[in-house]
Model the fold of this input.
Amino acid sequence: MSPSNSEASSNDQGTGKGNRAMLDYLSLFTSLGTLLCCALPSLLVLVGLGATVASVLSAVPALVTLSYHKNWVFTIAGLLIGGNFVYTYAIAPRLRARGAACSTETPTS
Done:
């Protein structure tokens, strides 16, 4: 089934494929950054692998540099999480309502 002309023209304007793709990648990197920054080290320490976390910090000294700039890291992480919240609850429902996003029930159609 091909999209009608009005759907095709609305997809080319405003929040078209380019903007959606950018927001998708931003969401992906936000989630991945949270996982690597917070969840993974906490999990390793929880299961008794604190030495692993220490060896990663010695192997990647840039992580120590980030700890000196905690305020900036916290601010940027908060902005990215806030942006993901806006995308999830404001932008994505509008895309679904216009038919520009696939259904969650049938993601392949």
Observations:
- The two ends are 10 Å apart (CA to CA).
